[in-house]
Amino acid sequence: GAGVSQTPSNKVTEKGKYVELRCDPISGHTALYWYRQSLGQGPEFLIYFQGTGAADDSGLPNDRFFAVRPEGSVSTLKIQRTERGDSAVYLCASSLTGISAGSTDTQYFGPGTRLTVL
Amino acid sequence: GENVEQHPSTLSVQEGDSAVIKCTYSDSASNYFPWYKQELGKRPQLIIDIRSNVGEKKDQRIAVTLNKTAKHFSLHITETQPEDSAVYFCVLVGSQGNLIFGKGTKLSVKP
Q1: Shortest Cα distance from B61 to chain A (angstroms)?
Q2: What is the DSSP secondary-structure string of A17-53?
Q3: Nearest chain B Cα to A106, which residue?
Q4: A100 → closest Cβ in B51, B97, B101
Q5: Alpha-carbon distance A81 to nearest alpha carbon in chain B (angstroms)
Q6: CA B18 to the chain's CA centroid
Q7: Which of B96, B99, B100 is opposite residue A56, by nearest beta carbon?
Q8: Is B70 exposed, middle or buried (0-12, 13-18, 19+ CB in 10 A)?
Q9: How many Cα atoms occupy the beta-carbon half-sphere of A110 within 13 Å?
Q10: Distance from chain centroid for Cα B83
Q11: pLDDT, tens digit, for every residue of A54-112?
């Protein structure tokens, strides 16, 4: 079946602007994760959804970042007043359940959105 | 907090040689240790994983070992091929199922 998809693949914006990044998880996956990957680094966790609710948003860097998943499927990551330091690849991943440190659910990643803030 | 250290950061080998990547971690309750491969400009993809009740797992040319007492785990690739060139990440699973990635090892396999 279809994998995780993300749109847009690339987004260039100006400092101070608002952006939205979209993630379509694998159908039936209840767990959805957002990560941010800076150049030369591993992905860093931002937020985790279990169904419609944000189960853990401890990775969001500040209150300019927030994300929603209103119907438990598609998620949107929203960044207000973008800064140059927000430039990175934003990755979304989904897994079937993803409930705990003991979970062995595989997380499947999307291709990412490359955000460039000028 | 949970943290994983990975080394080396870069590794260059001749085609056919073996490659070994090592990771150590602290303060993790994780019972599951996946490894992801990321080719340039592509998404991370799971290549192999190991659970804490197993000390070693092998899948064709790739093997992983885990020593949970010593808190370290390793990836071994034998008979390397140019298509193995990529960045490899060792990963912990956090308390919410979030993945905690190492900084990555850039493997270059020279033909």
Answers
A1: 21
A2: --EEEEEE--TT--EEEEEEE-TTS--EEEEEEETTE
A3: B46
A4: B97
A5: 27
A6: 14
A7: B96
A8: exposed
A9: 28
A10: 16
A11: 888 999 999 999 999 999 999 999 999 999 999 999 999 999 986 555 567 889 999 99
